[in-house]
Amino acid sequence: MRACLVLLCALTIAAPIDATAQTTPERDGIDQLLAHVQKALTTGTPDDFAALIDTQAPPEQVRQFATELVQPGIVRAVVSERDRSPLDNAAPGTAYRLVVEMFTETARRARIVTSLVDVRRPVGADRDAWRITGAQGLTTVEGLYRLRVNPDVRFAARRLTISATDLLITLDEGFVYQVDSDAGVTGLLLFGRGSMRFAPESPTEQGQVRIFTGSNILDAEFSSAFVRMHPSQYEQRVSVDRLTPAPVDARQLRRAQDIFARDSPKSFSLDLSDLSAETWHLLPQPGDFLAEVQTRRHGVLTYSRSLAQVEDVTLFDRERQRTVALYPSPERIAARGASYNEDDFRDYDVIDNDIEATISPQRSFIEGRARIRLRVRTPLLSSLTLRLADALTVSSVVSPTLGRLLHLRVRGQNSVIVNLPEPLDQGADVSLVVTYRGQVEPQDVEDEGVQAGDISGGEPAIVAEPKLLLSNRSYWYPQNPVTDYATARLRITVPDGYRCVASGDLRSGDEVTLRDLLTLTDGKAFVFTAREPLRYFAVIVSRFIRVAESTIEVADRDQANGLRPMRLTVEANPRQQGVGRALLGDFQAIMRYYASLLGDAPYASASVALVDHDLPGGHSPGFFAVLNGPLPGSPVTWRDDPAAFDGFPEFFLAHELAHQWWGQAVGWRNYHEQWLSEGFAQYFAALYARQAHGERVFRDMLRQFSRWAVRESDEGPVSLGYRLGHIKAQPRVFRAVVYNKGAAVLHMLRQLVGDDVFFASLRRFYAEQKFQKASTEVLRSAFEAESGRSLGRFFERWIAGAEVPQIHYLRTIAADSVAIRFEQTTEQLFDVPVTVTVTYANGRTLDVIVPITERVTEWSMPTTGPIRRLQVNRDSAAVARFDAR
Fold first, then answer.
1. DSSP category for residue 379
2. Most C-beta atoms within 10 A of its C-beta, which of 140, 377, 549, 622?
3. Contact between 743 and 713 (Cβ < 8 Å)
4. From CA 712, how far away is CA 720, in angstroms rounded?
């Protein structure tokens, strides 16, 4: 979409638009004027505007205004008033500034014009005396096309090829229909016997394709395909010499039109709301490419190359909603490098949010109004995108300074495009007020729960309390498409009998203002303030009871005495009250312990919301954690899961609270860095397990970390993030690699550099990256600065690679010494700290860390008595396959 700005001279000096002004006087007369404008647009001659322009308007400006609006061949026009406010220096009811959207379409193309139009009526004149005195800030959305399958042309094809990055589509024999636009051929529909070959060069992506197909390369036969491209690249991508004109087949043409009607709205199309009921399309940008391929074995596969995306090549299993491959093309890597920070692609920063929402948990329904204060990052911003769930209807987008703004929905993208009446310069601040409502998809706490095992017959003995969690995947409020840290005030109204927990400090009675108490709906309002910035905001609504609260002292390096108060609260469903009261002691101990390790706690308060659920699990936005409390008589059992630790009942509480530091206070720059949240939270939970339960429980957790890491590493590297296990819908793979292997990597790093350096590096990393998004590279720099050693290979192998080292070892026990020869047999060399345990005949044991960093490492030590046993990796701390010789 292209937005251009044409400025017309204002014929009347007007006051800024009041976004709340919705006056009604003389609306019929202004409507009549706009109806004449609509009719004039369809006549197609600028002279028809002459009767609508005030006689005091200079003729040159009249011609300029008319010329900008009128296009030859307009067959339909819609002129819609979006807002009005009175002009200064005019008698009441005689002059207004309007926000007007003008939609015009020709036979094959359309555009949308948004203009600020000044109108006036002489005092005492009839209502049909309204005239236009000026227009300014004209914004045009161009490039809207009505596409069609050409009904007059069909081609026979033999060995037709269509190419894109790592993709080759071959139609061995069949027929082809063209999808035409005014700009040329933008698509093809293929029928017949064909094949799709997808061959990524990345070893990681080859591994994902292998999980999907059993081979590093996808070769799939297809019977039909639909492709889109920019018309300028049609002959470059398509071997047009393989096309031969053939008679049109009416039955096949209908099939082509049906496929086009089904697939074309999925991409490159806009929802124009009340302006047009038709589907209007955008052209792919040069370099973009899309293919919807109906394969025989895998169903519909969608290949996309989109230059607007940081990782621009995608292969998607549409029927199962699975991403098979996602990676940057060589051109994208050359332009931005192998790694990236998603923040570099933000058009703007959100500074502050003021969100008012009325939420019905029974209906999963929300009515919201959000004020967003943002700052422009790009040199010139003429439109911006907001992330908001597709199911939510936006009734208005208004700026106190820019007035009511045109907003468009992009289908299937959970986004709203907002056009600005004039480009904003870099550094400019602007506020938007978005009003919206609708049903919203609740977020379940399944990602961090254990894997369900057997399900016994029958219904659960107790029905869980209703709840509604709206968090980072619900898109329940308008937000930046690229998450960024911002402060907020949340005012949440819930039905009688319900309470809520949300991101921020809950205001007490004496802190709530009169504005906070005003409401037009029934229910109870809760006001939360997040003074510390957060990546996203969340709320959970249920039948809660406040069962415990306390104020504790936690470490704070910025305070004179090294301590500051922190308020803790526990909210629980009625059946979880006893469990909620009992966990307060662990809640207090965990927060104190984590703050002592890192030097502070990031937020002034924290809450735990305990809810009914079949399976244990949790979720942790800023300021609070949601914990599932299994109900008595639940029909679901669980076992053999990376997150099931029998000896550590507080695991989920410890893991989720660690996210207040890792994942919230310190975020991650892109999904490849998710281990900085989940792996760190997993390891900190293990550290607390050692603190609370001793060495045996800690080593049991290390053993489970290592076992799952070795078992599932073939599924992909830690850096694959949420995509691990995604293809086959196996969430335990994600937990095994990102959670457990990530935690095991941290422990190996600790053994490699020593405890003092390890914790000093973590404190440095946390302090430098607090309220920012971090990366593995930044973490490595912190550890290298504290340790004075290079750690590039360590992180490259353990985080970016999927291989697990194979280590052979040979033990030698002599009268006064012991020795072991280690040999790495995998092609790549790893840095692996291995614990060697020497057990004397009298039962005394000695653990020695042996860093294995070369192909062959030989280790020996003198002994002080007879040796009973010499063990390698008894603590299971090293992620490797060991083979004794």
1. S
2. 622
3. no
4. 13
Do 408 and 516 fall within a single domain?
Answer: yes
In a domain, 374, yes or no: yes
Distance CA 797, CA 752 (A): 15
Nearest Cα neighbor of 669 from 206, 259, 345 is 345
Which candidate, 542, 448, 452, places its Cα nearest to that of 501? 542
Bridge-based pairing of strands 348-360 and 365-376 is: antiparallel
Task: Count helices and strands (H / E) in the chain.
Answer: 17, 47
Q: Who contacts 513 (Cβ-Cβ below 8 Å, separation ≥6)?
A: none
Same domain, 596 and 502: yes
DSSP 662: B
Rounded CA gap, 532 and 682, in Å?
24
The mean pLDDT of 125-152, rounded to a whole number, is: 84
| Highest averaged pLDDT of the listed ranges 68-72, 190-194, 393-397 | 190-194
**DSSP at 273:** G
Whether 198 and 258 map to the same domain: the answer is yes
CA distances to 20, 503, 584, 603 from 657, in Å: 42, 14, 13, 12
Assess if residue 95 is contained within a domain. yes
Do 661 and 762 contact (CB within 8 A), yes or no?
Answer: no
Q: For residues 779 and 814, state if they share a domain.
A: no
Decide which of 800, 821, 851 is a domain's last residue: 800
Q: Does the pLDDT of residue 712 top 80, yes or no?
A: yes
Q: What is the Cα gyration radius of the chain?
A: 32
Q: Are 143 and 1 in contact (CB under 8 A)?
A: yes
| β-sheet bridge partners, residue 333 | none
**Domain end residue (candidates: 303, 336, 369):** 336
Token output for 581: 């009261």
C-alpha–C-alpha distance, residues 416 and 438, integer Å: 15
Give 215's DSSP letter: S
Q: Identify the three-state secondary structure at position 806.
A: strand
Q: The tokens of 491 are what? A: 């005012």
DSSP string, 168-199: EEEEEEEEEEEEEETTEEEEEEEEEEEEEEE-
**pLDDT of 170 strictly over 90:** yes
pLDDT digits (tens, 9 = 90+) for 243-254: 999 999 999 999
The verdict on 452 and 507 lying in the same domain is yes
The predicted model scores a pTM of 0.88
d(CA 628, CA 489): 27
Q: How much is the pLDDT for 522? A: 66
How far is 354 from 129, CA to CA, in rounded Å? 42
Host H or E run for residue 787? helix 776-787
- The answer to whether 179 and 187 are in contact (CB under 8 A) is yes
Q: How far apart are CA 241 and CA 755, in angstroms?
A: 68
Under the banding of pLDDT at 50, 70 and 90, the label for residue 124 is confident
| DSSP per-residue codes, 75-124 | -EEEEEEEEEEEPTTS-TTSEEEEEEEEEEE-SSEEEEEEEEEEEE--TT
Q: Give pLDDT tens digits for 809-829.
A: 999 999 999 999 999 999 999
Q: Which domain holds residue 32?
A: 2-145
The predicted-structure confidence for 826-850, as pLDDT tens digits, reads as follows 999 999 999 999 999 999 999 999 9
Provide the number of structural domains found in the chain: 5
pLDDT at residue 589 in the model:
98
Element (H, E) at 744: helix 742-753
430 and 310 fall within a common domain? no
Does residue 695 carry a pLDDT above 80?
yes
In this structure, are 621 and 562 located in the same domain? yes
Q: Strand pairing of 881-884 and 806-813?
A: parallel
CB contact at 8 A, 844 and 709 = no
Residue 5 has pLDDT above 50, yes or no: no
Tell me: do 294 and 403 sit in the same domain. no
pLDDT tier for residue 507 given thresholds of 50, 70 and 90: confident
Q: Which two tokens stand for residue 627?
A: 């914990």
Question: Is residue 414 classed exposed, middle or buried when 0-12, 13-18 and 19+ CB atoms within 10 A define those classes?
Answer: middle
CB contact at 8 A, 800 and 719:
yes
